Automatic annotation (TrEMBL):
<feature type="transmembrane region" description="Helical">
    <location>
        <begin position="268"/>
        <end position="286"/>
    </location>
</feature>
<dbReference type="GO" id="GO:0005886">
    <property type="term" value="C:plasma membrane"/>
</dbReference>
<feature type="transmembrane region" description="Helical">
    <location>
        <begin position="240"/>
        <end position="261"/>
    </location>
</feature>
<feature type="compositionally biased region" description="Basic and acidic residues">
    <location>
        <begin position="339"/>
        <end position="355"/>
    </location>
</feature>
<feature type="transmembrane region" description="Helical">
    <location>
        <begin position="21"/>
        <end position="41"/>
    </location>
</feature>
<protein>
    <recommendedName>
        <fullName>Dolichol-P-glucose synthetase-like protein</fullName>
    </recommendedName>
</protein>
<dbReference type="InterPro" id="IPR022791">
    <property type="entry name" value="L-PG_synthase/AglD"/>
</dbReference>
<feature type="transmembrane region" description="Helical">
    <location>
        <begin position="137"/>
        <end position="156"/>
    </location>
</feature>
<keyword id="KW-1003">Cell membrane</keyword>
<feature type="region of interest" description="Disordered">
    <location>
        <begin position="330"/>
        <end position="355"/>
    </location>
</feature>
<keyword id="KW-0472">Membrane</keyword>
<feature type="transmembrane region" description="Helical">
    <location>
        <begin position="206"/>
        <end position="234"/>
    </location>
</feature>
<keyword id="KW-0812">Transmembrane</keyword>
<feature type="transmembrane region" description="Helical">
    <location>
        <begin position="53"/>
        <end position="72"/>
    </location>
</feature>
<feature type="transmembrane region" description="Helical">
    <location>
        <begin position="292"/>
        <end position="311"/>
    </location>
</feature>
<dbReference type="Pfam" id="PF03706">
    <property type="entry name" value="LPG_synthase_TM"/>
</dbReference>
<feature type="transmembrane region" description="Helical">
    <location>
        <begin position="162"/>
        <end position="185"/>
    </location>
</feature>
Length: 355
């Protein structure tokens, strides 16, 4: 009995949100400490000092295109699941979720907030969360597929590490899913339900093609932003080599064990640039500037989205006030009565009656 209680408590601790957040922060922070111990703080400072107006402007434009495409992908899938939303609303919420993902640990808190906010508007938090999960899964799968193709074509030196790592992760996930399904009928039902929901979200070939196309646009914009960061820090890399390096770094950026995106991204960037012959310090500098640009590029969109939300709420309240019978039937303000015209000359001359 004591052992069972201990196991239940341990399971509750491991499954808690604070434990997962702590693990992500510890791993991400540990990676950053290891990078500083390896290459020093100089590459980080060089990346920050390379920030300039041209790089920020390019990043803002690329982020706007990527956000518009991602919001369109989310809108398509949400509509298929019966919790549709307007594209302008989707763009604003996506900007806010990206900002939270880039400044908070784990890189998923913004998506959770987006799912909850959409669910409250659509009166179905569960289906809204499903739409966000499917939308992010499609983006990750497309990015992984692009990475495999690019590395096979142009990054032979990375195949010996990247492909085994991807294979190990996929095998571990598959074995865990099969073992859990074999051990529990409830898990089998959950997995079957997840597959059905995924099929529902992408059941139409037209929707699937559009979602994949939007995901390709998003990946291309991120690759271009990394190229901007690489050029800004003063590294001259041939286009195809830069494409491969950017894809590898983006894969690392999707690892959830980070602090606001920082950690594995810089570590893998240092390793990839070193393998490619450009030095680990160059990769860390490029990844550092890329991380800064990722934050700054979504700030204008967040500001615009918040202002638009406030204006929309205020106009909605005004319309409700006009529809309210109690407010509509209030008597109009009586204008102040003017004094008789014949009294005005007396007032101008300073005379008063009875003076």
């Amino acid at each position: 009995m004591t052992r069972r209680i201990a196991l239940e408590r341990a399971r509750a601790v491991v499954g808690s949100r604070w434990f997962r957040l702590t693990v992500r922060v510890v791993i991400g922070g540990g990676v950053l400490v290891a990078i500083v111990a390896r290459v020093g703080a100089g590459p980080f400072l060089h990346g920050l000092q390379s920030l300039n107006g041209a790089a920020i402007g390019a990043a803002v434009v690329l982020a706007a295109i990527a956000t518009a495409a991602a919001a369109w992908r989310w809108q398509l899938i949400a509509r298929r699941l019966g919790v549709g939303l307007g594209w302008p609303t989707a763009v604003g919420m996506y900007y806010q979720s990206q900002f939270l993902n880039t400044v908070l640990p784990g890189g998923v808190i913004g998506d959770v907030q987006r799912a909850v906010g959409h669910g409250r508007r659509a009166d179905s938090v569960r289906m809204a969360a499903r739409a966000v999960a499917v939308e992010r899964a499609v983006g990750q799968v497309v990015q992984l597929g692009i990475a495999v193709v690019i590395v096979m074509l142009f990054g032979a030196e990375f195949e010996g590490v990247l492909f085994p790592a991807i294979g190990v992760v996929l095998v571990v996930l598959a074995v865990a899913a099969v073992a859990a399904a074999w051990a529990s009928i409830r898990v089998r039902r959950v997995l079957r339900h997840e597959v059905d929901e995924l099929r529902a979200g992408l059941g139409s070939p037209a929707v699937a093609i559009q979602a994949v196309a939007a995901s390709v646009v998003v990946v291309c914009c991120h690759v271009a932003t990394f190229a901007v960061a690489t050029f800004a820090v003063g590294i001259d890399v041939p286009p195809l080599r830069l494409l491969t390096l950017a894809i590898v770094v983006l894969l690392a950026a999707s690892i959830p064990f980070n602090i606001g995106g920082w950690g594995p991204r810089e570590g893998v960037a240092g390793w990839a640039f070193a393998v490619a012959g450009f030095g680990a310090a160059a990769g860390v500098s490029a990844a550092t500037l890329f991380g800064v640009l990722a934050i700054l590029s979504v700030v204008p969109g967040v500001i615009v989205a918040r202002l638009a939300s406030l204006i929309t709420r205020r106009s909605h309240r005004d319309r409700q006030a006009l529809r309210d019978p109690q407010l509509r039937d209030l008597p109009r303000r009586v204008p102040r009565q003017r004094r008789p015209a014949e009294a005005r000359p007396l007032e101008r001359s300073g005379l008063r009656s009875g003076g």
